[in-house]
């Protein structure tokens, strides 16, 4: 893996660790917070690469419409959905129904990161 990717992935994990219990964010929101708005897909790769690290709540990161696009990277059939529902998310057909209510925007909650540019 490219060392730059590893550094980016660690930045993604640092943001993911700050997502409060019962809240979710999107790949794009993390990318924007990191100053790399066009890197939402790479945030997804980082989430997939964390391989169930218990210190990274990857289940709290979904796509911009609240769809559980990363669910196939979790053990078991519905583990991502179960984890979210245990935290109060309402999930139907692999989509968070109360997405607007529980969405957490790191740029609003944590301020802006400096140093990274698109």
UniProtKB/TrEMBL annotation:
One Gene Ontology MF term: catalytic activity
Domain Methylated-DNA-[protein]-cysteine S-methyltransferase DNA binding intervals: 7-89
GO BP field: DNA repair
Keyword flag rRNA-binding: no
The keyword Protein biosynthesis is annotated on this UniProt entry: no
UniProt entry keywords in alphabetical sequence: DNA damage
InterPro entries from the UniProt entry: ATL_DNA_repair, MethylDNA_cys_MeTrfase_DNA-bd, MethylDNA_cys_MeTrfase_DNAb, WH-like_DNA-bd_sf
PANTHER family the record matches: 6-O-METHYLGUANINE DNA METHYLTRANSFERASE, ALKYLTRANSFERASE-LIKE PROTEIN 1
Stored NCBIfam families: ogt (TIGR00589)
Protein name: MGMT family protein
Organism: Sinomicrobium pectinilyticum
């Amino acid at each position: 893996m490219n060392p730059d990717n590893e550094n980016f992935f660690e930045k993604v994990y640092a943001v993911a660790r700050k997502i409060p219990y019962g809240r979710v964010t999107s790949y794009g929101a993390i990318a924007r917070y990191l100053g790399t708005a066009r890197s939402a897909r790479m945030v997804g790769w980082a989430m997939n690469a964390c391989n169930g690290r218990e210190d990274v709540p990857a289940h709290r990161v979904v796509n911009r419409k609240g769809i559980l696009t990363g669910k196939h990277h979790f053990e078991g059939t519905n583990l991502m959905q179960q984890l979210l529902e245990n935290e109060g998310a309402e999930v139907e057909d692999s989509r968070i129904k109360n997405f607007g209510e529980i969405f957490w925007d790191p740029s609003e909650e944590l301020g802006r990161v400096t140093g990274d540019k698109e």
